[in-house]
Amino acid sequence: MTNRSTQLPLHGVRVLELGNYIAGPTAGRLLADFGAEVIKIERPGSGDELRNWRLYAGDVSMLFRTINRNKKSVVLDLKTDRGRATVLELVRRCDVVIENFRPGTLERWGLGPAALEEANPDIVLARISAFGQSGPLSDRPGFAAVAEAMGGLRHLVGEADRPPSRVGVSIGDSIAGLYAAFGAVISLLQRERVPTKSPLSERTVDVALHEAVFSMMESLVPDYLAYGLERQRVGGRMEGIAPTNAYECGDGHSVVIAGNGDAIFRRYMRAIERPDLADDPGLQTNAERWARRDELDGAISTWTRTLPRDDVLKALDAAGVPAGPIYTAADICADQQFAARDMIQRLPVPIAADEPQEVGFPGIVPVLGERSLPVRSLGPDLGEHTRQVLTELLGKDDEETDAIIMEMEKK
C-alpha cells in the first residue's frame, strides 16, 4: 500500500459489499475512493450484472470498471453453507456491510442483522432497497426508474406537452448510494464517539431509493401544502425562476444561461443589447419575469442565434452572467478545467484481445486539496482477489482456499 493510500481519510476501514447494479456499489465506491478497503462479494459465474451493462467490447463494461473502482472482487455463493460461513468470517473482520437486496433476502440466507451482529457486535449495516426496510411497500422490488417516478422527479422532467422523461443516468441509484455512504460514515463516527455500545438497529442505515429521490425535490411538497401548487414540467426552465434556460447559438451549439438574479438580469439584458428589458419596471422581480418568460426567452434566443457559442459565452462572462456550454463526452475530455483538477484520469484497461488501452475515467469527488485523489485501480475482474482475501485476511491454507474456489467454479 502506498504512502498516499495510508493517508486517505478512511484508511483502516474495511467494508464488505453485498450488492449488485449501481446503488450499493456506488456507496462502496465512495468509501473505497477515500481509502476504505472494500471487498465486493460476487456470485459465481456471472458476478455483478453490471459487468454486462453497456458492454460494447471485451468482457467487462466501462460502467462496471467505473462504479467498482478501488475495490477487491471475491466470488462466493451466498446460497450455500460454505459461502455464508465465509461471509460471516469476513464480517468479523469488517467495519461496515453494504447490501442492496430486496428486504428479507439476507434474512432468508441466514445473513440478516441478527447473524451479522452475532458475528461482529460493532458492525455498521447500510441497507439500500426500493422502499426501505419497513412500511407497506417494503417487500416490493424496484429499480431507480420506479423510485424516480414515485419520488416526484419524473413528473418534473421533460416538456410540458409531452409525457414525463428521465435523465440520462441512473440518478436515483446514485443519490441512494451517496446517502448510504454518508450514513455509514456518520455511524462509524458515532461508534467512535459514543462509549456505550448500541444495538445494531441503531447502527443500521436504511436508505430507500424513492426517499433518496424525494429528498432532492426541494420544496415540492411544502409548496403544494402551503399554496396548493402542483409543479409541472417546464422543459429547460425552472418553475418560478426566470430567465434560465438552454438557448441555441448561431453555430448549432447550445448554451445554458442562468440570469435570474435581479442584479444579474439587468446586466444580462444589457449584454444582449436589450436595455429596455433591463429597465422595464415590470421585470424587476422573479415573479414578474416568470410571468413574461416567453417574451424573455424569445429576446435571448434572437440574440444567441446571431453568434457562435464561444462569442455568446465570452460576452456573458464579461457581463458577469452565469452561463456555460452544454457538453458532450468529447467536450469534457478536452476541457481545461476538468484537466486542471484531474477529473479525467487515464488508466490502462483491457477491452479486447489487444494490449490494454488507456481510457479516461472520472476523478474522485469531492476534491481534497487542489486536485482529485488518484483512482488507484479500476473495477476488478471477477474473483480477482478471492485467493488473496481468503489466505491473507482469513488465514485459510491453500487446501481450504482451493476447495472454496473449486466449489465456486462449478457454479
UniProtKB/TrEMBL annotation:
Keyword Transferase: yes
InterPro entries: CoA-transferase_III_domain (IPR050483), CoA-Trfase_fam_III (IPR003673), CoA-Trfase_III_dom3_sf (IPR044855), CoA-Trfase_III_dom_1_sf (IPR023606)
Key words, A-Z: Transferase
Top-level lineage group: Bacteria
Gene3D superfamilies hit by this protein: Crotonobetainyl-coa:carnitine coa-transferase, domain 1 (3.40.50.10540), formyl-coa transferase, domain 3 (3.30.1540.10)
EC numbers on record: 2.8.3.-
One of the Pfam families matching this protein, by short name: CoA_transf_3
4Fe-4S is among the record's keywords: no
Gene Ontology MF annotations: transferase activity
Ranges in a coiled coil: none
Protein name: CoA transferase
Organism: Streptomyces lonegramiae
Organism lineage string: Bacteria, Bacillati, Actinomycetota, Actinomycetes, Kitasatosporales
